[in-house]
Amino acid sequence: MANASQQIGWEFWGSELKSRREGAGLTQEELSQQLFVSRALISRFESAERQPRLDTAIQIDEVLQTDGFFERLCRKLLEASPYASYFAPVAELERLATKICEFAPTVVPGLLQTAPYARAVTVATNPFVADECVDEKVSARLERAHILKDTKRPEYWAVLHENVLRVPVGGPAAMAEQLERIALMVRERTALVTVIPCSAGAHASMTGTLKLMEFEDAPPTAYTETSFSGTLLDDPAVVKRAQRTYDLLRVAALSPEASLALIDSAVEDYRRCASTT
Fold first, then answer.
1. What is the pLDDT of residues 34-91, one digit of tens each?
2. Cβ–Cβ under 8 Å, residues 93 and 101
3. Could you tell me where in the chain the CATH 3.30.870 domains are found?
4. Which of 128, 124, 140 is nearest to 90 (CA)?
5. What is the percent of the chain with per-residue pLDDT over 90, rounded to a whole number?
6. CATH topology for 88-275?
7. What's the pTM value of the predicted model, to 2 decimals?
């Protein structure tokens, strides 16, 4: 979630959008048509309920002829976020979602990560940064997970490839702790987690991660990510294709009961390995 100063910044961004849109004599509907987005999205930008992507801010500058104002402010706010610029809007959407569905081919999803696992992933991808930077990134990731502890938490589904269970991120002890946490969330019915076994072979999302989010009063979105960038998708046709892909992933996965048994078995393997090292 954005901190207080960031939220104030986005509220200012939204109020300026409304002021300059009205100054240009455009309704929300007219601006949305020029940006090829929904009127509801413009409304949420102006009320600071949604954070814009950088490319959207650039388009707004072009339409309203604001000489890069919205792009510059958007960049400043995104850079102040503990998240990568392409992920900051996604973190905010997670907080608003009523349902989140994720597919992870190699790494435990951020919302499920423990501190030792998150630290190991962060250090592996940022080997030269100071401890303070690592701590900030880990804290931000754990803060995101608080949405699953809230009384109004979203319905959370995760499909993991078996590779996620087999790569000992952080070492055997850290990995055992990580998988135990996932198993506990399943048993407490905080999350529904299934696993695609390696024996299943090819699956519907061989090229990367996939996150689907649904909202109470907004269209669903999809998010895909590689090692260096992420893409938030809200085109209805594209989101529908992403939803179909997720359906195929769920079909390829083991049952919830068999998946939990596989996770428990991996925990036992890591515990044995940890005890001998």
1. 998 888 889 989 998 888 888 899 999 999 999 999 999 998 887 777 788 788 889 8
2. no
3. 88-275
4. 140
5. 73
6. Endonuclease; Chain A (3.30.870)
7. 0.79
Strand order in the sheet with 210-214: 192-196, 155-161, 99-104, 210-214, 221-225, 230-233
Which regions of the chain carry the CATH code 1.10.260.40?
4-79
Closest to 100 (Cα-Cα) out of 182, 213, 186: 213
- Where do the H-state alpha helices sit in 145-255? 162-166, 172-187, 236-252
Q: Give the CATH number of domain 4-79.
A: 1.10.260.40
Q: 269 is written with which tokens?
A: 């393997």
Q: How far apart are CA 170 and CA 172, in angstroms?
A: 7
Residue 45 to residue 37: CA distance in whole angstroms: 11
